[in-house]
Each structure stands twice: as C-alpha cells, then as structure tokens.
Amino acid sequence: MRNYSTQMEAARLGIITPEMKAVAAKEYRTEEEIRDLVARGQVAICANKNHTCLDPNGVGSMLRTKINVNLGVSRDCKDYNIEMQKVNAAVEMGAEAIMDLSSHGNTQPFRRKLTSECKAMIGTVPVYDSVIHYQRDLATLTAKDFIDVVRLHAEDGVDFVTLHCGITRKTIDQIRTHKRKMNIVSRGGSLVFAWMSMTGEENPFYEYFDEILDICREYDVTISLGDACRPGCLADASDVCQIEELVRLGELTKRAWARDVQVMVEGPGHVPLDQIAANMKMQSTICMGAPFYVLGPLVTDIAPGYDHITSAIGGAIAAANGAAFLCYVTPAEHLALPNVQQVKDGIIASRIAAHAADIAKHIPHARDIDDKMADARRTFDWEGQWACAIDPETAKRIRDEAKPESDDSCSMCGKFCAVRSMNKALSGEYIDIL
Exposure winner among 20, 101, 211, 323, fewest CB in 10 A? Predict the structure, then answer.
C-alpha cells in the first residue's frame, strides 16, 4: 500500500519507490541518487498510479536523453488500428514515451488501451480533447469543462499532461503588439488563446492551477508545462513572447513543487543553431533545473519532407546543453499525419540525436555500444554490427543490395578497404589489391 501520493513526495520523505529502483538500474545510478534528484525536481518519473503496466523511466538532463513520439487520429486520418501499429513500432524502436494527440471521435477507448497495454510513458494534451469530449464549440466551454477533462485523463492513467498554463490575457496584447511572423503555432496554445479572445476570460489552466495540482497529486500525474508561444519559425526565436512565458512557467514550477507535483517544461520550437545552447541554459536557470522537453528544435525552416533531419541536428545540440527529453519530428512535419514508416524515420533520427548528446555529456556507459561497433567493424563481424546498429534492418538491407565478392570489405572499396589492408599489414600477411 502506497503511503505517499507522488514520486516527489516519496523522495522528499526519504522513500525509494519501485519506480526509482527501476530507473536507478537503467541509468547506472544509485537508488539514493535518483531519489534525491526526484526530490529536487531535477528528475521526473512520470508514473500515474493507474498505469500499472508501465516500465518506468526517469527524465532529467543528467540521465539518458529520452524520446517522445506523437501520434493520434485526426478528422482526415481516423484509423486507430494504424495508430496502434505506430505505437507498437515506436516502443519496439526504443521510444520511452507516447503522446496521444487525437483530435477526432471517441478518444477515451484508445487512451485507455494505451494505459492498459503500453509500457511506455503516456502523455496527452487535455485541451485537444475538451471540444471532442463535450461535442461543443470552443466558445461554449467553461473553465470547469477544461479542468474536468484533465481529471478524466488522470483517471484513465495518463502519466503526463501538457497544459498551456503560461499564456494569460497579457499574452493577447503581446502577440498583437510584437507582430510575430508565425503568431502562435502551438495547437493547444492557439485553442487557449482563441478561448480567451472569444470569452474575455483568463486562461483556465492558469487561473485554476491549484485545482489542477490537486488532481495531479491525487493520481501522480506529471505536468508538462506547454510552451504556447514557442517559435514556429526562426524569425520568432527567443522573442519577448517566448521568454515572458518561460518566466511564468518558472513561477508555476515552484508552485507545483510546493505541492509535490512533478514538472517538465516544454521548449522551442524553431531556433537557429547559435541560439540553442543559450535557450537551454536560460530555461535551466529560470526553471531551476526542471527537466526540459524540447520540440526539435528545428534549425531551418526550408526542409519540408526532411524535418526529421533539421530536428535531429537541433535536438542533439539541445540535449548536449541540458535538454532531457526530445519530441521526435517526422518527415511529414508541417505536411501531413505521418504514416508508420515516417514514424520510424522520425524515431531513428531522434534516437541518433539523443545518443550523440549522451556521449557528449559523458552519460555512464553511453559510448559502450559505439566501442562494440568499432570492434565489430575492425573484425568484419557483420552480425555484431547489426546487433549494435540503431536500425539493423536498414543496415543489413543496404549491404545485401550491393554485396561484395568477399566478406572482408564492402562494395564501396572492395580490396582497397583500409580496414582490410591494415588488418593484413599488422598480421604480416600479403596484401593483394588487384
């Protein structure tokens, strides 16, 4: 029987939970280290007490960089079976979190299926579900309606909820005054902005934040403080709207921690390469080291169809400078709901970025697999190389499509292979080239 409400409360009471033990084992850390990081809010273990099949993971800059995968149906693409294929593919490929962003139909059965069958952390954005759940236009919803959907998601076992608490009525004036190129590109942020504009009321997620904390404390739900004003193009990066919202998110982080509710803070967006490190350091300072969850960042605006690459470039730099959680981006970003293959492409790109950052940060044992790959390449151990590869199927297929006459080379170099020549030279063998 739990004698604590949340992972943070347990940590502050000196209790090491089963989830902390699991995270410590994965991260090569002591259980006491993980407990202390959770107590300080620098690691979040997103673990709703109703998500009983969860395989726990910790999110924090000093741990392995984690990957989130967004999916869910829309009015134009409404097949939940396909979305479940994406979920299964994502988990198999190593994603630690799934966010259900469904915006059409009866969303609850799919959400409950995720929390009853999926071992990854499950996240949602309750404001998306509000219009769908009540089947009413946005302007007719009340603050209570929004809060009740947060409770519904918590009851369903969701581990973290993205809430756009940081924009207020002041933001309406800022957006109109500062003339951004892309205004607000956050879907949830735009809904809250629209609701405030139409009703004249304050943001309910900000105004009733204490009531939300009660819900999150009851079910041990982590709040992912959404960045409604994240830049949607390079021109809007690091502007006053983004920074002012971040300051407010820092204040809300303190309020959540005071109630033993775990927090992650969402970040940009589209950001030029030279601004990424500064954005990470600024967030860490303002939000007191709370785990930073970045959406990319995308480092150029001109690569539709390849934004998984622009995102991976930014994600690697962000994670190397303190981001803890990368939200994957697929080749379909800005264009369409991704198919299963595009989901896989996005996960691979994000995993490469996360792993590169973990090596740069000297995360314990992060480079072990790279050293194993080097050994396998030196000895032409192809099966060993497939075992080390992030995507072994693709690597094996490419080799098989252009197989060389000998196993001790590839079709690029053949007998000119440097590795082959060095192996023979160092062992005193004759080196035949022609």
Answer: 211
**Residue (of 50, 67, 101, 10) closest to 319 by Cα position:** 67
- Please state at what angle helix 143-155 crosses helix 209-219, rounded to 10 degrees: 10
Strands 58-59 and 292-294: unpaired
Among candidate residues 160, 191, 206, 220, the one with its CA nearest the CA of residue 2: 220
Question: pLDDT tens-digit profile of 281-326?
Answer: 999 999 999 999 999 999 999 999 999 999 999 999 999 999 999 9
Nearest residue to 114 via CA among 167, 178, 48, 62: 48
Q: In the numeric block, which tokens belong to residue 161?
A: 């909820």
Calpha distance 50→136 (Å, rounded): 29
Structure tokens at 150: 């947060």
Q: Is the pLDDT of residue 239 over 90?
A: yes
**Residue indicated by tokens 């089963």:** 18
Give me the pLDDT at residue 374, please.
Answer: 98
For the chain, the domains span 7-360, 368-426
Kindly report the number of other CB atoms within 10 A of residue 368's CB atom.
10
CB atoms within 10 A of CB 428: 6
By CB atoms closer than 10 A (0-12, 13-18, 19+), residue 190 is middle
Residue 434 has pLDDT above 90, yes or no: no
For residues 278 and 243, the answer to whether their CB atoms sit within 8 Å is no
Residue found under tokens 């059965």: 109
Burial class (CB in 10 A: 0-12, 13-18, 19+), 271: buried
The residues facing 294 across adjacent strands are 267, 326
What's the number of CA atoms in the CB half-sphere (13 Å) around residue 196?
Answer: 21
| Least confident window among 40-44, 281-285, 409-413 | 409-413
Q: CATH homologous superfamily for 7-360?
A: Radical SAM ThiC family, central domain (3.20.20.540)
